[in-house]
């Protein structure tokens, strides 16, 4: 281990550029307009590259109390606990000694969005390195005091210990400037065999509070003098407010005021249910003009294919070899919703000409910019603080609710305003996961190896996140009418609609094109996995068809086309744990396999499952699922399992049940009766996740790794059970039944 | 001795009678069929549509079981009978049944071995099914995956556990024979009657039964109570506030809801879920016949219907009562009717007066058949247990209020609904029925709502009260 | 007007309009976080609490129905320091992702095991059918409820 001295650190820091600039933070996701990493400092690990000062991440007070800061937000994925573990590990303290501070423009580094499975690779990596360097600095301080060689000292439980047993606590060693230094490219990280926290399935720190009614969510905030607001949203995307007579609402008990700003309409009341009643009344009083702006949902794939487009080449590698067999198919995915169980919520307070907004946003800094633009407030007058919300799977209504609250709060100085969206508002207005069409033509040569791979996808952008005020509903609807930003085609490493569109499998040629669709008749943005869900579904379906053409077992066929040993390992692990075989299964029961490495550089995930298809109803029941995941060094294996199980079941729900219905004017999927999702009767009897730990390897994000492989595995199990290759998501009962009947009819023609 | 002679004479007479009865009752075994038959796909496809009209899968599937593999416990007033496995399994199903054996079971209510079947299997209706349709049904059933699922034993008390007794029942109530068209009507009408009275077995629920469990011919389709649900009269006594016509009925039967008449639920939900995949012309024929039985509504009925519609429209347009608290809502009222009204306004009106279209919105009670029906049982059931969400598809969902409403509150609420939204007299048995339903004395099997997909629900996915 | 209820064993007098759904009374008047707003339509179960041991959707239950009745929320099952069996089971199984649906799940499960202390896996699944989870925590929730049942019976699992 290199002994670091403060001097050494400072010396090394001289070459680094200090910056909190927005552009760097925005650049990291590959799903944000603005593009690929541009200005990051490549030498520094993780998000230290954007926020190099150690005390941006770790602060130790004279009383020994420790605060760890992350610009990432807890979204229910357990990241707060995982980062805590990492910090405790390298600081050599117990986790309970650390207070975690998450995303807050007033306190934490700007880490852009908590998205794209980036928290572990970026934030946790930064914290780990910062913590290791902080430990070295503390040891260095003690070495100076004791005049001992730092190499003879060790840190333990918040103190530095000398060979003679003498100790100095961190509190005694720290000074106000000790950690106000820039990070070094190299950190004295603990060796894999020395780890005590990393790799342990530490219980999540937030769960005890959540199961006992602790204040856990932004919805739970109660501030003195707080009032309750409800927004009256337009009935459809294109609707405009013609007239509203607010007299009746103004006279209702408890009503504090009605806000009308352009097409933005809201009511504020002293009590929550009074606000709801007033909202209902206001909705009835409002007159809107509506227009038909939506496509024909029954012909959505055709609509997408004929929209104006701009083509982007995602891959153009190699040259094909002659094919003995080819497979060609088109796959589709409908618009799908986030559908958090708790609709979006925010609290805002306008006081002394300054605004504070509490939001379950994925990006406090981007919201600060967007809301700031909308209200003409600089960052010095606008603070955005993350508070947890209900499950977040991408760009949902959080930012919009934050903007609603801020817009309303500005009219009621000194009064905290809590905005709670109603269920139908969440469903009707959240940005949806974009509908997609893909087209694949792939072949195998005479030896059964893939000979060519040609792939096209039609999709909108998968990110219309804030940054500009036009990304916010309140911004668009207010009298200032901020316009949404024009989406731009960008081909990045992590991908967007084209995420995972290039198969990891070996092929002499890979040609992948994204037909980028600029028109967005339905509001769309990032939903867990972005394009990877539909792309991996298409690729994995195709792989099974090619395996059939090659008369090879689908798992063996995949292994034959994988070079990455870690990829092979997860495929083998899932297959072995599942008991993959060619043994016959009961009638109408099938096995399915799916695999992908998320973004082709994050976690590896393989899924094997068994599903039964009821031929009468067309109902698909997934019976058991076995998965293997490699997300590098596993910080919290149970956390990874939890996330992966969740991804598996959520993807099951998308794949079997979900499509946002709409007519030519309105989104009609506005609640759980019109947008059904998985209930317990559809949950497999068992869901197993096996984590392959890779000590010493970088952390890889795992939150989105299961979405695509699960869809592929289900499709492949249906194929195995029934002989039907289903290409249109979701595999609803109606659709499966129709396919079965059509197949029976085809059989009839063939036999006749 | 005289007494002895009389006794002897009587014994002889009884013996002769028994002998005759046995001769009547005895049915031969039809030999087991050897190999699997070639199945004509067209016939099979027709059979699938017919099986949907027969609602076969609903009774012949146990919770968690395989479709058509039987085992569902049917709680009859006489004891528990389990439905049989009608998949082509040779061991526990009907794999050894020839087409003739199947046809005889439908026509005569006798299994392949010659045993009389309990009339829980509605052969009193199925006897009307034509040979041709039985062939199609047979082809369909024989095409199903064979499932080895032995039928659990029935738990019937003596003497009902003796199947011979069924022969006596048949002698009294059962007239076998295929449907004979009525020359006075056209083919469509006849097809409708044939399906409604035969395979569709509407009367099995909608006609009251006598003490021995037979349908009372004189009260054909007068409405009846079965399995904890009231099946409405579907003749001229239909309690629907707005009279049905054949188009509306056809839509309802195929889709499980009708915009101004409500959603199907309870034991009707699986019927409409299956009819959704029946041949549309069959559903139309069924609907036309039922509408014919309901008759042309009188001018008074039509006027009443229009009145109900107007009232519903009025209420829908107005601000929901819950949105505008009045002085009334500041205190809990003391009269039962006012209490019922207050409960309605605060717990029901936000959905039932939302104006949201069916099947996702709540029906305005001015249009509710349940509120106008002779029995409050359905509205009690729905208030307590709601409409459980369809599985994996869109459709009506209503939460149950079993935990929220106590017996007194529920009685007040329903009495208010009756008073406010119908012109019918108060239900005299309301509070008893409420008590019996809450206590579990009245058993109420629940079915998931008929969703919006054109696919039947999987009958193996049953539901329990969402408590 | 004032309505008197027992909430988690404590008499509470609430002064508000009697048509106010219990959910808002619990959250806003009594500052209890357990019951969550999810849909306000009785479709998701996030607001489930117990009224006299039966599960009730608090978002659709007006206060006026509850005079003198006994209400239990997740706060009534134990505390962070002293979690009850249901809470302990959910912690041990780490049965939460975002956790928003969890209190509703726990209350419905609590009603089940109070009604049927021997509830089997099928009964647990059936009972929870009314509640939605979006994070995909279902398998863990099922395990946690089975564990809670066992803890309540006094045995380990």
TrEMBL record, chain A:
InterPro entries: Ald_Oxase/Xan_DH_a/b, AldOxase/xan_DH_MoCoBD1, AldOxase/xan_DH_MoCoBD2, AldOxase/xan_DH_Mopterin-bd_sf, N-heterocyclic_Hydroxylase, OxRdtase_Mopterin-bd_su_IorB, TAT_signal
Domain Aldehyde oxidase/xanthine dehydrogenase a/b hammerhead: 212-292
Keyword Electron transport: no
Signal peptide (UniProt feature, chain positions): 1-27
Chain segments annotated as transmembrane: none
UniProt keyword list: Signal
PROSITE patterns, per the entry: TAT
PANTHER family in the record: ALDEHYDE DEHYDROGENASE, BLL3820 PROTEIN
Protein name: Molybdopterin-dependent oxidoreductase
From TrEMBL, chain B:
Subcellular location: Cell membrane
InterPro entries xref list: Cyt_c-like_dom, Cyt_c-like_dom_sf, Cytochrome_c-type_DH, Membr-bd_ADH_cyt_c
Pfam family, one: Cytochrome_CBB3
Biased composition (Low complexity): 315-327
Boundaries of every Cytochrome c domain copy: 42-145, 187-294, 335-421
Biased composition range(s): Polar residues: 452-467
Chief location bin: membrane
PROSITE patterns, per database record: CYTC (PS51007)
Residue span of region Disordered: 307-334, 447-467
Superkingdom of this protein's organism: Bacteria
Keywords from the UniProt entry: Cell membrane, Heme, Iron, Membrane, Metal-binding, Repeat, Signal
Name of protein: Cytochrome c
Native organism taxonomy: Bacteria, Pseudomonadati, Pseudomonadota, Alphaproteobacteria, Hyphomicrobiales
From TrEMBL, chain C:
2Fe-2S ferredoxin-type domain span: 1-77
Segments traversing the membrane: none
Domain of life: Bacteria
Keywords assigned: 2Fe-2S, Iron, Iron-sulfur, Metal-binding, Oxidoreductase
Coiled coil spans: none
CDD domains named in the record: fer2
InterPro entries in UniProt: 2Fe-2S-bd, 2Fe-2S-bd_dom_sf, 2Fe-2S_ferredoxin-like_sf, 2Fe-2S_ferredoxin-type, 2Fe2S_fd_BS, Beta-grasp_dom_sf, Diverse_Oxidoreductases
PANTHER family per the UniProt record, alphabetical: BLR6046 PROTEIN (PTHR44379:SF6), OXIDOREDUCTASE WITH IRON-SULFUR SUBUNIT (PTHR44379)
Protein name as annotated: (2Fe-2S)-binding protein
Native source organism of the sequence: Mesorhizobium liriopis
